[in-house]
Amino acid sequence: MSPSARTALFIDGANLYATARALGFDIDYRRLLREFQDRGTLLRAFYYTAIVEDQEYTSIRPLVDWLDYNGYTVVTKPTKEFVDAGGRRKVKGSMSIELAVNAMELADRIDAMVLFSGDGDFRPLLKAMQRRGVHVTVVSTLATQPAMVADELRRQADVFLDLAELKPKLGRDPAERPAQREIRQQPLQFSSRATVNGNELAKQNS
């Protein structure tokens, strides 16, 4: 990535949280922003997450507020509940469409995009961005069993960055006490298609 490249970050919040947790560390979002500001001309850093609206308090809100005031463009939407064929209550909160729309809107104004997600559903988006001359980097990991990144997504990317190798640059120092609640990682955990059991989701809102 050229130092003069106009760059935008697209962070799938739930996916990045799950990946970092699988690698045993927390993301320091201040350091993440600084790292990519140093790599090019950072035009925008998007952070996408779904929020459980019917709960009196969810600990993701302080993080969302902190990001919003510290250089990120936060995109949220409420989760949706449904009952699957087995009668189980599910909560769905995919942000894939919002991320793809924002990326396509910026395609003519950026030289490079960095996608923080391992979801293979984003492969068509990567192909579309590349057809418009955008250099695409994917950040996820192969260091877990199973890998957190879909093979087709990794192969489609121009560059693949393993989050495990970025840990020294993006990880929060474990010696630091998270004095500010807003620095804590977001608790929502979705599957690769952003659907989890509703009861589990409620427990995860710590």
At a glance:
Helix content is 35%, strand content 24%. It has 206 residues and is of the alpha/beta class.
Q: Summarize the biggest pleated sheet.
A: 6 strands, parallel
CATH superfamily grouping: 5'-nuclease
Quaternary structure type: single chain
From the N-terminal CA to the C-terminal CA, the straight-line distance is: 38 Å
The radius of gyration is 17 Å
CATH fold name: Rossmann fold
> Could you say which overall geometry the principal axes of the C-alpha atoms support?
globular
Q: What would CATH call the class? A: Alpha Beta
Largest sheet, order of strands side by side? Answer: 3-2-1-6-7-8
The low-pLDDT segments are: 177-206
Residues in β-strands, percent: 15-25%
Query: What is the mean predicted local confidence, pLDDT?
Result: 82
Overall CATH architecture: 3-Layer(aba) Sandwich
The domain tally reads 1
Total count of strands: 9
- Percent of residues in helices comes to 25-40%
User: How many separate helices?
Assistant: 8
Describe the structure.
The structure is a single chain. The chain is α/β, with parallel strands linked by helices. It has eight helices and nine strands. The longest helix has 11 residues, at 29-39. The chain is globular. The chain starts with 5 loop residues before the first strand and ends with a helix.
List keywords for this structure.
alpha/beta, 8 helices, six-stranded parallel β-sheet, Rossmann fold, 206 residues
Topology at a glance:
Elements: E1 6-12, H1 13-22, H2 29-39, E2 41-51, H3 60-69, E3 73-78, E4 80-83, E5 89-92, H4 96-106, E6 112-116, H5 123-131, E7 135-140, H6 151-156, E8 159-162, H7 163-170, E9 195-197, H8 198-204
